[in-house]
UniProtKB/TrEMBL annotation:
Highest rank taxon of the organism: Bacteria
Enzyme class: hydrolase
Provenance organism: Myxococcus virescens
SUPFAM superfamilies to which the protein is assigned, alphabetical: BAR/IMD domain-like, Trypsin-like serine proteases
Function description: Catalyzes the removal of dipeptides from the N-terminus of oligopeptides.
Record's protein name: Dipeptidyl-peptidase
Family: Belongs to the peptidase S46 family.
GO annotation, biological process: peptide catabolic process; proteolysis
Keywords tagged on the record: Aminopeptidase, Hydrolase, Protease, Serine protease, Signal
Length: 697
């Protein structure tokens, strides 16, 4: 470990100190910001920043940066779209993409962007509905009420998405209403070589020299959407010591988990997951060596796997740190002593920690079945997931909304259909390789005598079954999917498609293990985590932030360096350093466009920078703004010390890593000649015709 955690920031209960916290917009500590930095965000300021922020439904953040629906995010967040639009002849991942005219902006096959328009506290409603309930009755009632609230919120509006967000491990519930944009088009993406300069060796490190940025545009009714709230561009960009805000969608933190839950992560989940991902990395690396096309179609998946390996390794090291873990244990013991000392609180909350521990023991017993059956670890194939969605859709959609599996709630159907009918390419050779890997791991982990393994494999080897399924299915054809979806149960029952037949055969087994998990584990943890959270509220108050849940959060901090191994790390790198670190060999090989224009660039232009803002995975693509709500950068990473941020925050070394806004302008101007884009970002800088409408491609 390269860091030590500060005990006060790890209690998961006491008010946050320093620049710690990924805060919800309806509980942002504006007064605390003023106390430290002299600026107090007003409600109007917060509302504008919230509406100028965006979420990529696949797991990243973004921002609106013009009145014409222009969206900025990371290159690695938009890789799926860029990859899906690429072909062997037009490799936009390798060579980049720029739409010189609005008519050249190309629609992403499977992308949705969300804008948070309203937050409603529904805690009282849900608590009243579940009062006095436990076990299955509690879980069923809670899910049904959540579905009811989400359905009433969207009210059949296909452009609305509503999610009940669980905060403070169930201590609070908020209803988030989003505006959905499903027509998203690619505007500009640099080459992979500069967007991920340094590759895996530099991932989660600093200094960095990346241009990890991509521009998209959202459309409505075939026209660029009008966005009244958007971030303007700063003239100077991030300055050392400057107050910065990051508005984004951190995926998940575990700072409020109990010791029993953390032990399960440390001893079981993380080691097993890291082993599997490492093996998958080897499989994908071998696959990419088969040829240029195999490398192209597998690179995106390999990128994700390598990123996950490094991130999870950092989290595991944090939990293995004895000093850190002892601090977490001490914090929980202190909280429990306070509960035990109050007779009324003891009666309400004291048993919660033990109940969670029992549920974790149950989870240990079913983890492998859950992983390789319901969670898709064994049948790791895009085409199988399509088949299972079709099979389950035929079963779930005729039911009353509150009785369906959560993913089939009416509020989720538009997004589900968009994914199901996406024209994104599926590559058979890669599907066979992935499915072979998953089936092999399933047989290895569950054992060849396991009933599920026997049902899936029969007498076939993983390789032969994977090849037969992928080569025999027709589900690559979107029209086939649409016909099966429309035909419902009758069409599914009559289908001879091998993927559909397999999904039908194994769905009862998958549902059974899911039912066991939801009733014996999830419901117990959810109910008792709610009690733990309420005990914290009673003891420490509500002046604290909840764990990240891939819901919109705002963090504050400053552009500031840090000390590592006795050396001071400067907070800002320069463009000249990019060329100094280039070796000509991957992953330190610059694209031709950069080498060609090196002399035209101002080498002193800031390239990347770090700040003390508290972030986690999911914040990728988040805008970094100043007190005037102007873009000064875009988050693309955290430093290696930030990986333990899953469980705690240490302002002395935790840093977010961002592309400097000036680097974006300098490269768009002198390398890519993106004058049309520059005019949108900085109106008046060039003279260009207004953006016009065009049909989707």
């Amino acid at each position: 470990m390269k860091r030590l955690f500060v005990i006060a920031t790890l209690l998961g209960a006491a008010p946050a100190m320093a620049d710690e916290g990924m805060w919800t917009y309806n509980n942002f500590p504006s007064a605390k910001v003023k106390e430290k930095y002299g600026f107090e965000p007003s409600q109007q300021w917060l509302d504008n920043v919230r509406l100028s922020s965006a979420r990529l439904a696949g797991g990243c953040s973004a921002s609106f940066v013009s009145a014409n629906g222009l969206v900025m995010t990371n290159h690695h967040c938009a890789r799926g779209c860029i990859d899906q639009l690429s072909t062997a002849k037009k490799d936009y991942i390798a060579n980049g993409f720029y739409a010189k005219t609005q008519g050249e902006e190309t629609q992403c096959p499977a992308m949705e962007i969300n804008q948070l328009v309203k937050i409603t506290d529904v805690t009282e409603t849900l608590n009243k509905a579940t009062q006095g309930l436990t076990g299955k009755k509690y879980a069923d009632t809670l899910k049904a009420k959540m579905s009811e609230l989400e359905q009433a919120c969207s009210a059949g509006n296909a452009k609305a998405r509503c999610d009940v967000v669980t905060l403070y491990q169930g201590g609070q519930y908020n209803l988030y209403e989003y505006k959905r944009f499903q027509d998203v088009r690619l505007v500009m993406a640099p080459e992979h070589a500069i967007a991920f300069f340094g590759g895996d060796p530099d991932n989660f490190e600093f200094p960095r020299y990346d241009l990890d940025v991509t521009f998209l545009r959202v459309y409505e009714d075939g026209k660029p959407a009008t966005t009244n709230n958007f971030f303007k561009w700063s003239d100077k960009g991030a300055q050392e010591g400057e107050l910065t805000f990051i508005s984004g969608h951190p995926g998940r933190t575990s700072r409020g988990l109990t010791i029993a839950e953390l032990e399960f992560q440390r001893d079981v989940v993380l080691p097993k997951t890291l082993m599997t991902l490492s093996e998958m990395r080897g499989m994908l690396t071998e696959f990419g060596r088969r040829g240029a096309e195999q490398r192209r179609i597998s690179t995106n998946l390999l990128f994700g796997v390598e990123n996950s390996v490094k991130a999870l390794k950092g989290r595991h090291e944090a939990l293995l740190d004895k000093t850190f873990f002892a601090q977490k244990v001490a914090a929980e013991q202190d909280l429990r002593k306070k509960v035990e000392a109050n007779p009324e609180m003891k009666k309400k909350y004291a048993a919660a920690w033990d109940e969670i521990a029992k549920a974790q023991a149950q989870l240990r017993n079913i983890r492998q079945d859950l992983t390789y059956m319901e969670n898709g670890g064994g049948l790791s194939s895009t085409l199988f997931q399509v088949a299972r969605t079709l099979v389950r859709g035929a079963e779930e959609l005729p039911k009353a909304n509150g009785e369906r599996l959560r993913e089939f709630n009416q509020a989720n159907v538009p997004a589900l259909e968009a994914q199901l009918f996406s024209p994104a390419p599926v590559y058979p050779e890669l599907e066979i390789a992935r499915l072979t890997f998953g089936l092999t791991k399933m047989r290895e982990e569950l054992g060849s005598d396991h009933p599920f393994v026997k049902k899936v494999l029969g007498k076939e080897s993983p390789e032969k079954l994977a090849a037969r399924l992928v080569k025999g299915t027709k589900l690559r054809d979107v029209k086939v999917r649409q016909a099966l979806y429309k035909g419902g149960k009758a069409a599914i029952a009559a289908s001879k498609d091998p993927m559909i037949q397999l999904a039908v055969a194994v769905d009862p087994d998958m549902r059974a293990i899911r039912k066991t998990y939801e009733e014996n584990v999830e419901s117990v943890i959810r109910k008792n985590s709610e009690l733990v959270a309420k005990s914290k509220f009673e003891i420490y108050g509500t002046n604290q932030y909840p764990d990240a849940t891939f819901s919109l959060r705002l963090s504050y901090g400053a552009v500031k360096g840090y000390s590592e191994n006795g050396k001071q790390v400067s907070p800002i790198t320069q463009m000249a350093g990019t060329f100094e670190h280039a070796t000509g060999e991957e992953p330190f090989a610059l694209p031709k466009s950069w080498l060609k224009n090196e002399k035209a660039l101002d080498g002193t232009t800031p390239m990347n920078f770090v700040s003390t803002n508290d972030i986690i995975g999911g914040n990728s693509g988040s805008p970094v703004i100043n007190k005037d709500a102007e873009i000064v950068g875009i988050v693309f990473d955290g430093n290696i010390q930030s990986l333990g941020g899953e469980y705690g925050f240490d302002e002395s070394v935790n840093r977010s890593v961002s592309v400097h806004s000036q680097a974006i302008i300098e490269s768009l101007t002198k390398i890519y000649g993106a004058t049309r884009l520059l005019e949108e970002l900085r109106p008046g800088s060039t003279k260009l015709p207004p953006v016009k409408a065009s049909p989707a491609k």
